Amino acid sequence: MTVAEKTTIDQSEVDRFSKMAAEWWNPDGKFKPLHKFNPVRLSYIRDHAAQHFGRDPHGPKPLEGLRLLDIGCGGGLLCEPMTRMGASVIGADASETNIEIAKIHAEQSGLEIDYRAETSEALSAAGEKFDIILNMEVVEHVADVDLFLTSCADMLKPGGLMFVATINRTMKAMALAIIGAEYVLRWLPRGTHQYEKLVRPEEITTPLSHSGLSLVDQTGVFYNPLQDQWNLSNDMDVNYMMLLERKAESD
Hints:
Blueprint: H1 11-19, H2 32-53, E1 67-71, H3 79-84, E2 88-92, H4 96-108, E3 114-116, H5 120-125, E4 130-136, H6 145-154, E5 156-167, H7 171-184, H8 201-210, E6 213-224, E7 229-233, E8 239-246
Parallel strand pairs: 1-2, 1-4, 2-3, 4-5
Antiparallel strand pairs: 5-8, 6-7, 6-8
């Protein structure tokens, strides 16, 4: 495969999520785990972005004036709250079905969101630039992790932030995130995640550092069944989030 033919699309993954697209906004449906996960990742994004850009995280529109890309946006579970926080949002996904679902829901919600059925490499080639890039629960579903991360990094403005959330490639993650979540508890459809496609933290930081980004923060995330909610944790063996930045040109 030549460089021009390289793609981040894993068609089997696109097809799998396209078949479930109608479920995106059902909090008790196949994407229930993401609905449960949303509060902790939303607060993480809001608080760090507000601190970085000198905003009040509890203000009505803490992301106002910032251009944001949610890559692999699915049905728009992050795009809508980011828009409500004031960001100018582009939601991109390789699945046209996901994008159509996202467009319909945004219209019903009275929100203006620029949804596009495009890949990261296509957006990068078009010269798109963003203050914030959300790369959440998508890197473990692409065909070429390095190409995906590099093309995302190319779109980050100086002084911009990239948030990444994914699942670590550990035996603990195999036991909890795949066997436990998919086969025992049935939180997710079987086959949602493949162990060999899970991504270790250094497999994210290495290509991004080569693209000029530096690590600002990293945290584990775990589900507390007693509270029925996700919380931040020091344990990054299973679910984790990372924050990276491209230094401002004056730094």
